Amino acid sequence: MRRTVALRILAALATTATGAAVCMAVMTPQASAAVGSATGFATRNGGTTGGAGGQTVRATTGTQIHAALCNRASSSTPITIQVEGTINHGNTTKVSGSSCNTAADVIELKQISNVTILGVGNGATFDQIGIHIREASNIIIQNVTVRNVKKSGSPTSNGGDAIGMEANVRNVWVDHVTLEASGGESQGFDGLFDMKNNTQYVTLSYSILRNSGRGGLIGSSESDLSNGFVTFHHNLYENIDSRAPLLRGGVAHIFNSHFSRINESGINSRAGAQAKVENNYFQNAKDVLGTFYTDAAGYWQVSGNIFDNVTWSSRSGDTNPAGPNPTSNTSVSIPYSYRLDPANCVPDIVRQTAGANKGIRTSNGSCTPTNPTSNPTTPTPGPTTPTPGPTSPTPTPSQPSGTNLSIGAGSDGSSKASGTSYGDVRDGNMSTAWSPSGSTGQISIKWDTATRVSRVNIREASGAVGNVRSWRLLNHDTGAVLATGSTAGVITFPATSLRKITFDITGSSGTPRIAEFETYAG
Question: Average pLDDT in the 327-350 region?
């Protein structure tokens, strides 16, 4: 890390859970799976409900958390785990079972779905032990503290991430949590909230991230561009060096958050990432938005933000701040309704609502905290319903005119199901098709020289029309997102010269089957 974060003395816990017993008190299935309902991108792709409708159990040790997962009828049986006390290495052991895949040194949510972890009573603290979400979906984590997770030194857990997601993760809502470290990489810490290797449809809301060298990231490297559709709102980033957050590709929506003492760089949009940044309050900070430490540019749409005592570096080399007068360089479409607090009240509303053990209060959209409902409710659409921008065009059923540039071009992809071929999408034959080996995947058209394209037509094979439910269209040369949407068909976007264009299927119902990936100059 370029700089060491000032150490903070964390308050001592009143009690420490002891022992590794796996006994659990079973509550009624009707108990609330979480307080309130998911917001932001976590509401897309089928939504995020966690363990709603399932059994509720109580856990005071990490072993009991693992046992609750392993005692389910299957890895997808809904469950809410109410946690109270301190979870640490001493009370967390591996538990085996057909419905789980756990480990001794981490809270492991691996190869599972439909789970809520909810802090209750006097609070839940995960002390030096991280929460790892891998190959999982429909997960809620609410009202917990995770602190001082290390990747080096002793003890280590979760690669140093407080909450880390990787490898085909879908629909995670993290809400009213406090994520803390006591320094940067040189002190053994890594990120507080990391998403890697095909993690999508995530919301982080009403949370505190503080005293860390690294706030968090989307994408582990400039080539890990399979992540995105992440919402950050009503969060406090405090005393963070950088990555608040770091975005590599994908789409992020960041609103109504308070950024205080960002020491080196804040929202770092890179490698074609697109960030909508609105009604945030940036205070006593440096380089809070831009592209930093790389020449792979990212993009942003800004509105309504307040910059209070923010300093900006001069542009040079791989330092490209958006300020001192940030302006938009893209337009980002947001596919859900949301309420916006005015930026001038953000520090106060975030202070009253964000973090664990604050009563899980939220804002009413008018700078006033409101108490939670006792059971999940269907969110009421707020007054802000964004108009789709050019990044999410509405497909039109009309056939594009002109020459299909895919005929005679090359093609490749991320995977292919048995009996299919990448070349089937550029042969002009609707009876042949490509399918990914799973429910998501990428298919590309490529040329030897730069080719100007402004429209594509994704034609699903007979019997599979409508199977594609969410997608991104990428400029594979740069990683830039040209368009996003929820149904296949004709897609238009600003004319772009490129050598390779990629259709990235991020969600589906049934097996996707793409018969033709047609490309047109106009």
Answer: 96
